[in-house]
Amino acid sequence: MASMDSSLGALLIHHSISISLFVSFFSVAGFGNLIAKSDIYCYPRWLVKLFRALVWISLSPSLLLQRSKWIRVMSSVWWASNFSLIKVVNVEKLLRTRSTEIVNIVLWIVEFLLLICAFKNLAHIMVSHNSQDDNLTDPLVVQNSEKRVIELDRAGFLSKLMFSWMGPLLRLGNSKPLSLEDIPSLVSEDEANLAYQKFKQAWDSLLREKDPRNTKNSVLGAIVKVYMKENITIGILALLRTICVVVSPLILYAFVHCSNRDEENLQEGLSILGCLIVTKLVESLSQRHWFFDARRCGMRIRSALMVAVYEKQLKLSSLGRRRHSTGEIVNYVAIDAYRMGECLWWFHTTWCSGVQIFLAIAVLFKVIGSGALPGLVPILICGLLNVPFAKLLQKCQFEFMMAQDERIRATSEILNNIKIIKLQSWEEKFKNLIESHRDREFKWLAEAQLKKVYGTLLYWISPTIVSSVVFFGCILLGSAPLNASTIFTILATLRSLSEPVRMIPEALSAMIQVKVSVYGSIAYVSQTSWIQSGTVRENILFGKPMEKDKYEKAIVACALDKDINSFDHGDLTEIGQRGINLSGGQKQRIQLARAVYNDADIYLLDDPFSAVDAHTAAILFNECVMAALRDKTVILVTHQVEFLSEVDKILVMQGGKITQSGSYEELLEAGTAFEQLVNAHKDSITTLGPSNDDGPGEPRKEDIVQSEEIHGSYTIKHSSEGEISAKGLPAVQLTQEEEKEIGNVGWKPFWDYIFVSKGLFLLVLVVIMLFGFVGFQAAATYWLALASDVPNITSGMLVGIYTAISTLSAVFVYLRSFFGAHLGLRASKSFFSGFNNAIFKAPMLFFDSTPVGRILTRASSDLSIVDYDIPFSMVYTMAAGIEFVGTIAIMASVTWQVLIVSIFSMAGSKYAQVYYQAAARELIRINGTTKAPVTNHVSETSLGVVTIRAFRSVDRFFHNYLKLVDKDATLFFLSNAAIEWLVIRIEALQNLTLFTAAFFLVLLPKSQVAPGLVGLSLSYALSLTGTIVFMTRWYCNLANYIVSVERIKQFMHIPIEPPAIIEGNRPPPSWPTKGRIELLSLRIKYRPNAPTVLKGITCTFREGTRVGVVGRTGSGKTTLISALFRLVEPTSGKIVIDGLDICSIGLKDLRMKLSIIPQEPTLFRGSIRTNLDPLGLYSDDEIWRALEKCQLKATVDSLPNLLDSSVTTEKIGVPGNASSSALAESSLRETKF
C-alpha cells in the first residue's frame, strides 16, 4: 500500500512540476510583454505579473527538490486560490470588453488542470495520512489468502458517478500487462450462484401458478420477475437521456433566435448556455449509467441462464440426452445465453426509440406548427418500411441461427470423435459436411448483411426526405419562415429522429436472436471410460480428500501401480481431455480405481474388463471385484462368462428382457441358452489354444508369479505438487495453456483481417465513399447556412438544391455500406475456410493437447464476431472519424477559437484512450481464455454426466462451474466498466469543445457572424460529442473484437499432418497385393519432450497370418496401431508394407487400405447407412451382408426405416451395437489388413 501511495504521489508531483514550469514560462513572458509596451508604470498589473512569475519560478524547483507533505499542501492551496481569484478578474474583463488574449485562453486550460491536480494532491495526502494511521494496526505478515473484490461497493458517490473505482485496475494495466491473477472477484450480488437462485425461485413460483407442463414464456417471466426493480431504474435513466436528446434542438433554436435579434442580451445568451451545459451533462451521465447498468443486469441474466442450462444438463434423462447433443448444449451456453444477456439493453433501446420519435415530432410541431404535418407522411412511410424490412431480417436471422446451431453441433460431434475419423480417412467427408452447414449459414449471413445495407440507406435517406417535405410544407402552408433558426432546428430534430429510426431494426434484429429454449451412495463404472482433463490423482480422488492408505489400496486393486511408476511424474502426470494420452485399458482401470476409492455401498460395473487383456481382467476380477469389493453389492455387466462361476446370482438378458435367473450351477442344469453360451466359450478357448493339463487344485506357474507380483512389496511413485512446481512441467504438461498475445500488437490484427480476406481494394473503396458522403453532407448544410440569408434565392431553390446534394450523400453512404458488407463477407469466408482446413489437417497431437471447448469457442463465438461485429465496427469507426474531422472543420470556420480547445480535448481523449486500451486489451484477451473453460466444462460434463451422478459429485461439478462462470463474467463486467470509464471522460472533454463554441457565439458581436452560420456551427457542435463517443466506442469495440481475429489466426497456423495424397508417389491401385508388414527399428514418441513408447521394434507380420499383439496395458499395443495408421509419425525406423515405406505415401492412400475396429467405437448422428458407409461406396446388398455377418441384420430389419433409421432415436445407438456396427463397417471395406 505504501509503495502504491508513493508512486501515486510521485505521479502527481511529476505532472504538477511540468505544468508549473509551463505557467512560469508564460508569467515571465507576460512580464516581459509589459516592459516591451513601456507599461511598467502601470503598478497594479506590473505587480501582479511580477508576483505570479516569482511564485511560479520558486514553486517549480521547490516541488522538484523538496517533496515533503507541506510543500505539496502549500502548492495545492496556491493552485486553487490562483485559479479562483485570477480567473474571476479575467472573466470579468472578458464579459466587459468581449475580448481576451490567446495566451490567457491557453493559461485558463493549464491552470484548470492545476486545479484538478490540487484537489487530487490534497485528497491523496489525506488518504495517505489515514492509510499510515491504519497501517499501525495492520499485521506484519500480510495474509495473501484474502479475496480481492471489485471496489464498486466500497466506492463513494462521485467515484461511482464517474467510474473512478476502475482507476486502480487501469493504472495496474498501464504499469504491466494484466494477468488472470490481477483480476478482482465479482461483488456478491453479481455472482452466478445468487443470480441462479433468484431465477430458480421465480421460475418455481411461476410454475406453481400455472400448469407445470406448460413452461412457455416461463423463462422470460422469471427474468422479468427477478429484475423488475433494476429494469425500472434503467428505464428512468434511458428516459432521462431521451428527453435530453430531444431538448437539444430547442436550445439550438433559442441560440439562433437570440443571435438573430438586433439588441444584444448577454444575460439571455449565458442563460441558454447554462441550459445547454446542464442538458449535456445530464445526457452524458444518464446514458453512461443506462448502458452500464443494463449490461450489468444482462450479465446476471446470462449467468443465471448458463447455470440453469448446466443444472438441467446434470438432470437430463437418457432420452433427454439423446434429444440434446453435447454440441447443442454447448451452443445454449456459448451463444444463446449471451444473446439473452444483451436482450435487456436492446429492449430499453427499442421503447426509448419510440418515445424519442414521439417527442421529436412534438418538437417539430412546437417550432413550425402545421408545417410539420406533411412531414408525418414520410415519417410514417419510413416507419412502415421498417416492418417488412424487420420481417425479412427476422427470417434471415432465424435461418442463420438454425444453420449455426447445426454447424456447432456437428463440429462438436466431429471433434469428440476425431480419432476415429482420422483412422477411417473420413476427414474429407466430414469437412465437406461442416462446409455444407457453413454454406447454408453463410447464405443467410450474406442475406442479413445485405439487408442491413438497405437499412443503412433507409436510415440516411429518411432525414433528407422528411426534411425536404417539412421545408416544402413550411413554404406551402406558411406556418413558419425558412430562416436559420427554423432550418437548423428542423435538421437537429430530424437528426435526433433518425437515430431511433436506425436503431429500431437493429433492436428488432437483436431481439430476434434471443432464443428461449429453453439413498445409499452408488459408484458407477461405465462401459465407455470417462476421464476428465487433469492428473491421474485428480481423476481417482474425484473431489474427495486424500487418504494415502485407502488411495494406494485402490491403485493396487486395480493394477495401476506399475503404470503409475512408469509415468514421468507418477500420479501427478496430466492425462489431458478425455484421457487421450492413455490406453483404453488404463482409462478403464483409472475409473475403476475411482469407484473403489469412493467406498460406495453399491457398485454398478458396466463391462469394466472390455478394454483390458485376459490376464489383467483376471487380476481385476480377483483383486478388485472379489477382494476390495467383497463387502459391497456389485452388479457386474459382462460378456466374459469365465467369471460367472464366482458370482452369487446371474441374470441372463435377451431382446431387452430377463430370460433366466439363478446361480451358475442352476442355470447350467437348466440346459438353456446360458449353457450354450458357456459351452461356446469353452469351445473357443479349446480351439484357440491347448488345454491346461494341470490338476484343478494345483495352481499354475503363471498364477503364482502373478500372486507374488500383487502381494509382494511395492512402491508407488508419487510426486508432490511442490516437486512438480519446482521442476516445471516439461513432460507432464499435455494440455497446453491457451495462447494469447501480450501488450499492444498495433495494427497487425487489423491488417491480418484485411490481407487474409484480400479486401484491400474494397477497403479503399469504403474510404473513398466515406469522404464522398461527409463532403456532400457538409456541402448540403453549408448551402442552407449561406443561402438562407440571400434574398435572391427562392425557398424552392433553397430546398431543391439541398435535397439533391443530400440525396447524393445518401448514395455514397449506401455504397460505403455495400462495399463494407462485401469486405466482411469475404473475410468471413476466408477465415472460416482457413480455420476449418487447419483443424481437419491438424495432427492427432494437436487434439491430444487442445481441449474441445477451446476449439469450439473459436468455431462459435469468435467466428460469430468475425461474421457480424467486425465488418460494421470497422466501417462505423472510419465513418465517425472522418465525420469528426469534418465537424471540427465546420465549427472552426465559424469560431476559430474552437480549434485550440479541440486540440487539447483531442489530446486528452487520445491519452485517455491509450490509458484505457492498455488495460482493456488484456481484459479482452483474458476474457477470450476464460470462455473456453466454461464450454469445455459443459462438454465434459455432458459426456460423463452418468458417472458424475453415480458418484454423487453433482454439487462439486456444479460449484466448479459457478466459479468458471463467475470468472468469465468478471472479465465481461470489467471490460464494460472500463469502456464507460473512458467514454464518460471523452464526453466531458468534447463537451468542453461544445461549450467553448457556444460561449464564443454568445460573446461575438451580432454583425460578425450570420445567424445561418451560428445555426450551422451549433447544429454540428451538438452532434460533436455523439460523434466522438460513437467513434471511440466503435474503435474500442473493434480493438476488442479484433482479438477474435488473433485467436482464429492462431489456429490457422497450427502444424499440419503430412498430405493426404502425394501425387508424385501414389501407390499402385492394387497395393497392397500380399499384406506383409515389416517393422524396422521402429521408435515412437508422442511429443519431442516425451519418453519413447516404442523402443526400436523390429519384426515381420507375414501375409495371410493372424497376429496377436499382447502385453500389459500401457505397453504400447495401441501406439503400434497408431503408428501403422500414422496417427503418430516414427521418430526413427520404418514401417514397410509390401515393400513400400508407408511414410513415403499420402495418409489417405495408406488409411483407406487399412481397416480398424477401435477400442471406443462410436456412432455419428445420422442414419445407419451413413454410419456404415459414410462415403457412399457400397450397395444396399453389400451393407445387408455385412450386417448379417455381425448379427445386426435382425435388429436393423425390425426398424421402420431400415437402413435409413436414425441411430440417435432407434435402439441401434447403444454401446454394444456401436461395436458391432464398427465391425460391420470394417467388413464392408474388405482390405488386406
From TrEMBL:
ABC transporter domain location? 428-680
List all membrane-crossing ranges.
12-34, 102-123, 232-256, 344-365, 371-393, 457-478, 760-785, 797-819, 884-907, 982-1004, 1016-1035
Q: What class of enzyme is it?
A: translocase
This protein's GO CC annotations: membrane
- Its catalytic activity? ATP + H2O + xenobioticSide 1 = ADP + phosphate + xenobioticSide 2
Q: Membrane topology type, per the record?
A: Multi-pass membrane protein
> Mind telling me which CDD domains this protein's record contains?
ABC_6TM_ABCC_D1, ABC_6TM_ABCC_D2, ABCC_MRP_domain1
Q: Where is the ABC transmembrane type-1 domain?
A: 232-513, 764-1040
Q: Give its localization.
A: Membrane
Q: Which domain of life is it from?
A: Eukaryota
Provide the E.C. number(s) assigned to this enzyme: 7.6.2.2
One Pfam family named in its UniProt record: ABC_tran
Q: Which GO terms describe its molecular function?
A: ABC-type xenobiotic transporter activity; ATP binding; ATP hydrolysis activity
Recite the UniProt keywords alphabetically.
ATP-binding, Membrane, Nucleotide-binding, Repeat, Translocase, Transmembrane, Transmembrane helix, Transport
The record's comment on protein family reads: Belongs to the ABC transporter superfamily. ABCC family. Conjugate transporter (TC 3.A.1.208) subfamily.
Protein name (record): ABC-type xenobiotic transporter
**What is the organism of origin for this protein?**
Ficus carica
